[in-house]
Fold:
Amino acid sequence: MKAKLVDREIFETFRVLTFFKFLFALSEFIAGIVIFAIGRNNLVNFVISVAQRELLEDGNGSIAGYIVNLAQNFSIKAEIFIALYLIIHGIVKIILLYGVWNRKKIAYPVSILVFSLFLIYQIRLYLTNFSSWLLVLSVIDLAYVALLIFEFLTVRKGSKPY
Structure:
């Protein structure tokens, strides 16, 4: 009986994480579309208008100055790469998460492979950037892959969802 309760809690955690990963994937897709839609010049103008007050208060070395400089040096190639990356990354995750949510057997091994590759890439980025945000994201993704493996083994045995 206790094992069933633990399995149910794991399943519920898995479903919640899948739902939030789906929302995040959807936001990646939308962000990619928005980057394409607004274009480089509009992006630079938006960043300048948002950072203008901060720039007036502290013109040298501020975070706002750094962000404006970054936006102004944002190339068309970088814009296209980032937009396409977000769109493709979002679509792939949406399709896989939809399959996992609906317990499609083929979605599990493919998702485990793809999410593991994404995780390896994130860890590689972390080792060069040391971003605490990327570390947190990687830990969450690692937990998700572990839950995905557990759920795949459950589905493969033919067990019913709770």
Summary: DSSP finds five helices and no strands in the chain.
